[in-house]
């Protein structure tokens, strides 16, 4: 999240705002007006085959939170236009935190057998201050797509690694890292209730998306910032839509640390505010009596999806991660001003994550920087770590050959 962060006050009213990483400094290219499956766009503000997750039988390894075999995604397919331009589809049942309707953007190309599902980021709402920080980033409709048309989302770049993929753009306007299941949630200091329904939105979209792209043999699930955490948490639900596809999961700057670095009290706050226990229910180790345990979700994914390629991109000194996770300082004591987890603490947390939690199942690319998010920025094509360009590492990741890179 580049740019200046401003606190909007300690008591906020939920205004009609939408979803995203953050507004870009420059306007993006005008997307095609396209076609919709349910009316006009909302304006509120190649080809390997293989086993995807090895489950396919409706058992708990599919990531369902109930333990029962999941129902198939069998909604009405979207009416695609395979012209390489963005088209917006309102999807009935998807909504933002303030109740505004939402949907997905789709860019489809002729002959594609690869599908990329991108989850946009844009902060997280779990107290009055963070809700104030995140509210202006909550975008939906074409406004969300226009907010970050760079990196792997810039299809004017000839070397874009996703040029031959169909791409689904999931906006972010719920403030719950795409993982919430709580409608009408209350946050102290926030005037109006928030619909923390990010996970509900994902499942609702999948009911239309899986029938739209039934032939996809490669599935990339990726997200940035809050969308990166959402990509992790929602991966089982998304992978269930393409059980025969070769699967890839890439998390850019959406980090979950062990309890030593991500305070259990803060984990509990997020879990209770957003209703995460319902989504993480198949991972008993992900919730400990003191509120911690969320980092165990990495091990859960690695165990239940042995054929999936996992990747993580991060900055060693990421100032945005330091801010949000800094709210766990001093046992979640109220912060005076903007908190900071601490530069050295963050570096230690990332090193511990790579060395003690992720192991060899997650290829990592760590940049010595305090910037936040890389794959959907212009720097995607220029930044390097340990002499390797990020775009080259991304290519290796999609080939199943990425390794650990960086400090």
Strand content: 15-25%
Q: How many domains in all?
A: 1
Kindly report the spatial arrangement of strands forming the biggest sheet: 1-2-4-3-7-8-9-10
CATH topology: Rossmann fold
Share of helix, binned: 25-40%
Shape, principal axes of CA atoms: globular
Q: CATH class, please?
A: Alpha Beta
**Second rung of CATH, namely the architecture:** 3-Layer(aba) Sandwich
- The tally of helices reads 11
At the fourth CATH level, what is the homologous superfamily? Alpha/Beta hydrolase fold, catalytic domain
Secondary-structure-based class equals: alpha/beta
Taking the sheet with the most strands, its summary is: 8 strands, mixed
Topology pattern, helix = H, strand = E:
EEEHHEEEHEHEHHHEHHHEEEH
End-to-end Cα distance, whole Å, is 21 Å
| Gyration radius, rounded | 19 Å
Low-confidence spans: pLDDT under 50, at least 5 residues?
Answer: 1-20, 22-69
Please tell me the overall pLDDT: 85
Secondary structure: number of strands = 12
What this model shows, in words?
There is one protein chain. It is built from eleven helices and twelve strands. The chain has 407 residues and is α/β, with parallel strands linked by helices. It has a single domain, classed as Rossmann fold (3-Layer(aba) Sandwich), CATH 3.40.50. The strands form three sheets. An eight-stranded mixed beta sheet has the order 1-2-4-3-7-8-9-10, with helices on both faces. Strands 5-6 form a two-stranded antiparallel ribbon. Helix 3 crosses helix 4. The longest helix has 16 residues, at 343-358.
